[in-house]
Amino acid sequence: MSQHTEIALPDLAYDRSDYTALRAYCCKIPIERIADLYYSEDSPQVEQGLERFLIRMRNDMIERAIEHNPAFADILKGARQGGAITSRALDILVRAADPPKLVPHRDQRISQWMRPKTVQPLREEGVVTLGQLVDLIKRRGPGWWRPIPRIGRGRADKILRWLRHWPRELGDIDDAVWAAGALVDVDQLPALDPTSPDAIAPLGTFRLPAYLSGADGANRAPAFCFIGARHDLEAINIFLARYDDQEETQRSYRKELERLVLWCALVARKPLSSLLVDDCLAYKTFLAAPWPAFRGPRAPRHTRRWRPFAERPLSPASQRLAVVVLRATFDWLVKVRYLGGNPWVAVKDPKVAKRADPIKIERALEEDAWANVVGILQQRGQVEGNRQDRVALAALLLMGDSGVRRSEAAAARRDRLEPSRNTPDVWLLTVVGKGHKERLVPVSLRTIDALRAHWRDRGLNFDDAGGEQPLLGPVVVPGTETATSRHEEPNENGYHPASLYNLVDAALRRVRAFADAVRHGESPPFTTEQLLRLAKTSPHAFRHTFATLAVESKMPLELAQEILGHASVTTTRIYVRAREKRIAAAAGEYFGSLSQSDAAARPNAVSLEAHVSGAGDIS
Fold first, then answer.
1. Distance between CA atoms of 560 and 564, rounded to whole angstroms?
2. Most exposed residue of 269, 343, 395, 522, measured as fewest CB within 10 angstroms of its CB?
3. What are the domain boundaries of the chain?
């Protein structure tokens, strides 16, 4: 069994005679002549078959050379297929087969150190370098390997032992860090009691009783399973761990799976891995009108007041999203052979009215309203104790002046921000957006000034920093266990995207309170309509604000698309299409022209009245 879990590339033990013999073989010298020249009659190479030995040696060296440098693949293509080997190709093979003893580094490819059977499944998970592998293990904890098909416990243990040989070069994988890993042992959690009125609880706080666990689910695949999941909750945790570096996506998937698991246990009373098509249809109906016990006002997950659904019914779009998410989850569980089939493929998506503008650009602030929001926060930020206003201003400007998403602002790092070499009044920030795609976004000087002020509040020098500190970090850490754990090392971790939402939302409430206090003055900062819109404004609206104002200021669509990270320019073009105010303005002109036409036509109407009256007299 050991040969199936061996992960490190073996050392190639060939001597100078073997290399010379291989050169001769590649030059088409008869194999008998090579044996006479370079080997004795009882040498193991001759006894096992010299030609077979030299062919295997050639293939080993080709594989090693390509793993060390994929660029060699084209050069060695003919040799790999059994053709002739040029002198240049043979020199490459010899150098790659006998390299000096190397020390691994975080930015090196895993393929330089490990066998292809270990490299390939990691590569399919997006883990290419040794540093990415170490970070993944730290992030996921002891069960890091479970979501990765074909990486079993034995291979995972050998990978871990190998990585721990190089703590200084690759980073120390400390067991203490693992305690907070995402893949916790579900079986150590308290059991959920379906008959209890307090049974509704979030994922990660309960285990399911044996008859609901899915360990023997009716839809479990009979073939060998590619993930180490014993029951449904472990399978869900393994699926969610695949998105542990995409917090927004992971939260969306967790919410829908959480709802389904609770429905399976408390309503359907059957395991998730036993659901049939009619069960899925029943859940689809449930989404439109959840039981009252499943609904409630927004509350922290750790409280008994938490409920999986809000008080208001789900919109058709949210119902459709739930079905799409569940179908994708079940599809993955089928691919890794945890489930035998996907019952959601027979369930149609809920019908949703197609919006004329799928992006809610009406939430964007007008130019004067946006300027007044910034101005009020700048004014408040001049007060020494208003540190929260200063960090909120920096966050708002990153979204409203640069068009970044909330999650991108939360993940932004100082070492990815630098002045433009071409334009003195612009800085450039590299962010990682959807699909792990990097892009450059412009950063205004007023954003840089806001960041400098925020960094002073954190006891840091913005212009002296060169490390990976987050651009935005809390100046006050709440006393909760999660926050304390996240910010145990000051300035190492930035805001969680959800915390950034709360920060911006609180700042906007202060802006509205200020506006209310001065609304009856000579020049109130907002109109009544703008105040109403501001009350409904979310952080994402500031990204729309940037897009709308940029396009309206004649920024080329292709550049706006690149800054916003849209996959298609069609999405960016939405910001050019007629918005509500343009529709209203155009309609106003049209209706005005109709009124003028009516006025011009009135004499004719009088004449017609007289004519009708005369006609009446005639009759």
1. 6
2. 522
3. 2-97, 110-178, 186-346, 361-573, 580-619
361-573 falls under which CATH superfamily? Intergrase catalytic core (1.10.443.10)
Dump pLDDT digits (tens) for 472-531. Answer: 988 887 766 667 767 777 777 888 888 888 898 999 999 888 887 776 666 778 877 787
Residue with tokens 């754990």: 485
For the beta sheet containing 438-444, the strands, ordered from the edge strand earlier in sequence to the opposite edge, are 417-419, 426-432, 438-444
- Tens digits of residue pLDDT in 113-161: 888 888 888 888 788 889 888 888 877 777 787 778 778 778 888 898 8
Closest CA to 162 of 173, 146, 151, 152: 173
For 442-456, the DSSP string reads EEEHHHHHHHHHHHH
Non-local CB neighbours of 488 within 8 Å, separated by 6+ positions = none
* pTM of model > 0.70: no
- 579-593 mean pLDDT: 66
Environment class of residue 499 by beta-carbon count within 10 Å: exposed (0-12), middle (13-18) or buried (19+)? middle
Among 290-304, 352-366, 548-562, name the one with the lowest average pLDDT. Answer: 352-366
DSSP state of 166: -
Residue 42 identity? D
pLDDT tens, position by position, 399-410: 989 889 898 898
Q: How is residue 589 written in tokens?
A: 């002109």
CB distance 213 to 271 below 8 Å:
yes
Question: What tens digit of pLDDT does each residue of 516-572 get?
Answer: 777 666 677 887 778 777 877 888 888 888 888 888 888 888 888 888 888 777 677
**Six-digit token pair at 484?**
């304390």
Q: How far apart are CA 507 and CA 536, in angstroms?
A: 13
Amino acid making up residue 594 = L
The Cα 309–Cα 267 span in angstroms is 15
62 CB contacts (<8 Å, ≥6 apart)? 76, 79, 80, 93
Per the model's pLDDT, the better-predicted residue between 600 and 563 turns out to be 563
As a dihedral over the C-alpha atoms of residue 348, residue 349, residue 350, residue 352, rounded to 10 degrees, the angle is -130
Q: Is 229 left (phi over 0), alpha (psi -120 to 50) or beta?
A: beta
* Closest by Cα among 268, 212, 207, 203 to 239: 203
Residues 6+ apart with CB under 8 A from 314: 287, 288, 290, 322
Contact 294, 309 (CB under 8 A): yes
Shortest CA distance to 93 belongs to which of 51, 60, 56?
60
CATH code 3.40.50.2300 for 186-346: no
